[in-house]
Amino acid sequence: MTKVFEKSPAFFDTFTRKPSMQKTTHYCPGCGHGTLNKIIADQIAELGLQDQTIFVGPVGCGVFIYYYFESASVSAAHGRASAVATGVSRANPDSVTISYQGDGDLAAIGTSNAIHAANRGENMIVFFVNNNIYGMTGGQLAPTTLIDQTSTTSPTGRTVLNDGHPLKMAEMVAGLEAPVLSARVAVNTPRNVRQAVKVIKRGLEIQRDKKGYAFIEVLSQCPTNWKKESKEACDWIDEVVCKQYPIGVIKDVADQREAQIRLAERVEFEALADQLGLTTDDEDTSQKIEMLQDELRFKFAGFGGQGILSLGMMMAQMSMEQNMEVTWLPSYGPEMRGGVANCSVVVGKKAIGSPAIESPNVLVALNRPSLEKFGPLVPEEGLIIYNSSLIDQVPDNLKGQVYALPATDLASDAGTVKAANAVVLGFVARKTGMFQLSDLENFLRETFKKPAMLETNLKAVLAGWNAAEKD
Ligand code: SF4
Q1: Ligand 1 binding pocket includes 131 (Cβ within 6 Å)
Q2: Which of 211, 379, 357 is nearest to 292 (CA)?
Q3: Which terminal residue of the chain has fewer beta carbons within 10 Å of its beta carbon, N or C?
Q4: What is the pLDDT of residue 284?
């Protein structure tokens, strides 16, 4: 039985972020995208392919394409639509997979993805919207920009010497062995639209029949970035653009090709896990650790060089080994050397929505700027652990339960001030009830291979653990 694909129920009925889309489209007046969308929709309906169709949307002016079709869809990162469509098509051999891409997306950042998908002859149809320019980002030069055409990044016009020749994608694709159809159409006049309808129908039939890769380049007007009136833009396609990019079918060998079915390879995860010596028993919660709350949001902060990121990493790693859900989000940048470094770690019993933390329920502040910055964000039931070796003044606007831990002094006693993060680890593990001392020891033995470092860190962790009992 043919599988049915449908639009995700996660879509909003009303897309309130773009009110204009309730009445018209997000495309500019006179844009060719709308005409193309309508042709594709009509032909999908005429061929009865709606329940089989999966769109892969691009980054660019076509980014909202999923709002115009009552079909399944996926959005790809910039330039990656053909690669994503490869995965979609192979995982869903029953589908009609459509990759919809503009010239910046397909012919610049995503050229390699597009060409290799074509060369493999994937079962997909690619609509390549060529309007000679980067549309959404404001009219920069694209690989398809015409010679002498001006753009925001070629204000005096494209030259061969500086920018190379306009890229003829449909001819490039036609030159490969695998593709069955490569054509160029335009949507600027009724006559060209009628021709486009035929070619697009042909491309969709090829997909319906699983005959391989079809590529349709669509010359489309962009009045906004061409700085032309709509009619003028349509005329310009006939008078100028078509001279560089002639319309017509360049290659069609579909009648000589058999249907090609690539069976989706289903990974048997249990067998794979067995081979790798792993367990797939997700229901086994016996390893799960006890915690103060179902989700702990840690903020570790201090000077760059105090081992803050490693501290967060150790906490994340240990939690992960206990089958907990974990995220670790470092803060890099100028803070890396001497300023305030911090990282966020979320540990939860259920899937974590976001790694970003607005209000930590455990703050570890190893220097004063960190305590002043993050301390007021901790709620009343939260823990604030600060390094009392370096912080002699506690802000008076803290709501959480405050613990003074002389982390640097205890680390120094253990052998090196660099082990202050290990002191904190021991303290936090005990205060939050997350780990046993034996868990910490095992972890350190796996982490530190040099005996001297292991010994120092074991001492430091123990010092933190004992300090937590006294508090
Ligand atoms: S910028 Fe150009 S391509 Fe993009 S929606 Fe507007 S007219 Fe169409």
Answers
A1: yes
A2: 379
A3: N
A4: 47
Q: Is the CB of 221 under 6 A from ligand 1?
A: no
The response to whether residue 31 sits with its C-beta less than 6 Å from ligand 1 reads yes
**CA of 223 relative to ligand 1 center, distance in Å:** 7
In a shared domain, residues 359 and 246? no
Testing ligand 1's pocket by substitution, the residue of 65, 127, 131 carrying the most ligand atoms inside 8 A of its CB is 131
CA–CA separation, 289 vs 355, rounded Å?
20
pLDDT at position 268: 75
- Give the model confidence (pLDDT) of 17-52 as tens digits: 666 666 778 899 999 999 999 999 999 999 999 999
Rounded distance from Cα 138 to ligand 1 centre (Å): 9
Residue 287 lies in a domain: no
To test ligand 1's pocket by mutation, which of 61, 103, 132, 236 has the most ligand atoms within 8 angstroms of CB?
61
Q: With a 6 A CB cut-off, is 224 part of the ligand 1 pocket?
A: yes
* 27 Cβ below 6 A of ligand 1: yes
H/E stretch holding 295: strand 295-303
**Residue 67's domain spans which residues?**
19-256
- Count of domains observed in the chain: 2
CATH classification at residue 186: 3.40.50.970
Residue closest to 407 by CA, chosen among 334, 346, 468: 468
Q: Mark which of 256, 284, 312 sits at the end of a domain.
A: 256
Same domain, 301 and 247: no
The Cα–Cα gap between 315 and 319 comes to 6
Q: Is residue 116 part of a domain?
A: yes
Q: Give the closest residue (by CA) to ligand 1 atom 1.
A: 135
Contacts of 291 (CB under 8 A, 6+ apart): 347, 349, 432, 433, 434
CA atoms of 147 and 277, how far apart (whole Å): 60
Q: What is the CATH number of the domain that holds 329?
A: 3.40.920.10
| Residue 281 placed within a domain | no
Q: What is the pLDDT of residues 70-104, one digit of tens each?
A: 999 999 999 999 999 999 999 999 999 999 999 99
> What's the 90 CA to ligand 1 centre distance in angstroms?
32
Residues 229, 324: one domain?
Answer: no
- For residues 20 and 66, give the distance between their C-alpha atoms in angstroms, rounded to a whole number: 16
289 close to ligand 1 (CB < 6 Angstrom): no
Position 343 in a domain: yes
- Are residues 235 and 96 part of one domain? yes
The answer to whether the CB of 104 is under 6 A from ligand 1 is: no
Please check whether residues 246 and 340 belong to one and the same domain: no
